[in-house]
Fold this protein.
Amino acid sequence: MELSVNKLKYITSLHQKKTRDADKVFIAEGLKVINDLVRFGMIPQIMVYNPDRWKLEDFGQSHAFCEYYTSQQTQDEK
């Protein structure tokens, strides 16, 4: 899936606590953390991953209901 400039800006804005609080979201990093959150009923909204390190299938069902992008796409947009 192609990453739009607006989506990249939004993802970048999540580094600010005020944005996360306003949107009631948080950032989860790492395969184990993401799979644990999904196992406990959380559904990711956006996933960005490095295809050189992970395959989308490694994330189990966590990608089924969210937008997903590779880190290569985010680098190309910058």
Remarks:
- Residues 74-78 have pLDDT under 50 and may be disordered.
- Residues 20 and 59 are 23 Å apart (CA to CA).
- The chain has four helices and two strands.
- The longest strand covers residues 46-49.
